[in-house]
Amino acid sequence: MATDVFELAKKHFFRYAEPLNLEKRYPGMDIHEHLTTPDRSIGFRLTVQRDDGTLQVCQAFRVQFNDDRGPYKGGVRFHPQVDLGETKALAFWMYLKTAVADIPFGGAKGGVQVDYQSLSLAEKERLTKRYTLVLGNDIGPEKDIPAPDVNKGELEIAWMLDTWRMNMGSYQRGVVTGKPVSLGGSKGRREATGRGVFYTIVEALKDLGRSLDDCTIAVQGFGNVGANAAALLHAVGAKIVAVSDERRAYYNKKGLPILDLLAQSPGGKLPETFANAEAIDRDTLLTLDVDVLVPAALENAITEKNAPSIKAKLIAEGANGPTTPGAVEILADRDILVIPDILCNAGGVTVSYFEWVQNRQEFYWTLHEVNEKLKAVMVTAYHTVSELAHREDITLREAAYRIAIERVAEAAARRGVQ
Ligand code: NAD
User: Fold this and answer.
1) Between 232 and 214, whose confidence is greater?
2) pTM
3) Which of 19, 73, 335, 402 is deepest in the core (most CB within 10 A)?
4) Domain residue ranges in the chain
5) What is 192-344's CATH number?
């Protein structure tokens, strides 16, 4: 992602915040600056020993953006494109997301610039553990709670818990979320982001007078978010006609056998060949003639270039920042309904919150309880946003931003000015 992504994210913010008149309503607080300046940006050199004994130096980050509504919360990403600008933008969106979902957290994000997939298992463990060791007391269950993101799942989260516990000398499971259930993770966390995407699609289709069993869907990215969303959509009768990963895409106009594909796609990697589908160009997927498009890979998938050719009537942003600001305008002009990332993919952080609650009380919920509570949060968040959008004749994105900004500004003001 280009380093100016955070500047673009701020521009969006100012445009959406303008009608709220925050500077007048909260005088003397420099409220816009407050809401667009990270509380802390931590950048550090991370040195990892490779299996051949040589050292590799990587850049690592943790941005703690805003904690007005609760402790910092956000994932950690291991990817070659990670930089400070990207991490700031992701942390910024994170605090807006926790506010839209109305869960009592702020926002943070972390990352390491590394070709993680090329590392051996032992190298991955050393990298993850060293990252956690360096952050040390900067994270903690009452302070800043990391979680999974791209290239980071239960395995890495368990390593983070182990390191923090040894380093700090106290067993507090709530320091990270997205843990394996055997280490105090929540049932349902693994599928939670995809499940949240699914719930928002169901509600948005109702707004469009459509239902899932007569929809065709394309899903970009077949990792945690994309594959789980695809499986749930498929289970209720929707036709998933195309899926992609970073190297390939498969298409079948009659619908892909998603469970077979899932079984053959460990770690979000689609198989090299797949008998029941046609191989298509990875980026063609975005402009296929489908009812619903789910970008669930990385940022900037939908751009000014391909937005005019998108045929989907509904876009559900499973990924963070998949649509560039220019493309946002084009899609709005074309009356394509977009469920924005800070609403659509909030299911992950919501169940992370449930996991943190369960860890604090050391009393664990059934999968049914978790899913019902998640559904209640996502459906309420969707309708709060959608009702404002209808009332004010604005997009879902604009409405979600207004709601989030209002909530955080109010909390910031209530904390006093001294
Ligand atoms: P993941 O690493 O599990 O999966 C990413 C998938 O995207 C992989 O299949 C990868 O091959 C594919 N991909 C990468 N580049 C691609 C491209 N150009 N075209 C098509 N596919 C491509 O990651 P994830 O956890 O599923 O995260 C995906 C997105 O969702 C990210 O934007 C992440 O920030 C966001 N997100 C994740 C969570 C979570 O709980 N994991 C929560 C909220 C948001």
Assistant:
1) 232
2) 0.95
3) 73
4) 4-183, 192-344
5) 3.40.50.720
